[in-house]
Amino acid sequence: MKNLFFFLLTILLLLGCENEAKLTFETTELKNKSCNDCPKIKITIPRALGETRIAEKVNTIVDEELIYHLKFEDSSNVNSVEEAMASFSKGYQSFKNEFNDEAIGWEAKANGEIRYENAFLLSIILDTYTYTGGAHGHSESIFLNFDKEKNVELENYQLFKDLEGFIDFAETKFRNNQQIPEQGSINATGFMFSGEVFHLPENLGFTKEGIQLIYNQYEVASYADGAIELLIPYADANQFLKEKYRVLI
């Protein structure tokens, strides 16, 4: 009974420390002015509060991603999300002045969400959508993973102690989920992996259930196929992760 008591006390203390280590966020919403001759822009993102280095890093990286997706291609010296929104609107007006009949329905949206956080890790996902004419718009999901102790954004490879092992495991699971034969080309059923070799997506991150892999439109499949997702539970993923980034299950 005494051992059980100390075990439960340790778990409670660990949970308490983890909760105390979590950042505080507030939801920020940005919109452009509403008018008959303006594109629609709506940004909803989590903003880390406080003056810590990790809060500053998280907000800076989120802003950089939004600026990249909002900034009109001919713009320069865009240093804030608000300036990027103005750049998108200016791009619309320039396009409309030259191609009035085709300047219809321009839109930009972004929504951010905390997908996972513990004392060491933070994963944020940004879902973006832009439409600047043509048959359809462009959607993209971006995972941002942070090491909260080192105050840095993590590259995908930095999460793993055995990256090649994880790639092999992910390929097996991907083939099973997509009903691709175990032997032969990964593109046997119509996928478009470069060189017919399986690879991880550009975006992967942590969720409550496991490591989520997201292949965005055109990354390995056609636009019509949409995003291709794969979830690898922590019971399988932990063996490949660096010890610091393993998630208790």
From TrEMBL:
<dbReference type="Pfam" id="PF11738">
    <property type="entry name" value="DUF3298"/>
</dbReference>
<dbReference type="InterPro" id="IPR037126">
    <property type="entry name" value="PdaC/RsiV-like_sf"/>
</dbReference>
<dbReference type="InterPro" id="IPR021729">
    <property type="entry name" value="DUF3298"/>
</dbReference>
<dbReference type="Pfam" id="PF13739">
    <property type="entry name" value="PdaC"/>
</dbReference>
<feature type="domain" description="DUF3298">
    <location>
        <begin position="170"/>
        <end position="234"/>
    </location>
</feature>
<feature type="domain" description="Deacetylase PdaC">
    <location>
        <begin position="35"/>
        <end position="138"/>
    </location>
</feature>
<protein>
    <submittedName>
        <fullName>PdaC/SigV domain-containing protein</fullName>
    </submittedName>
</protein>
<dbReference type="InterPro" id="IPR025303">
    <property type="entry name" value="PdaC"/>
</dbReference>
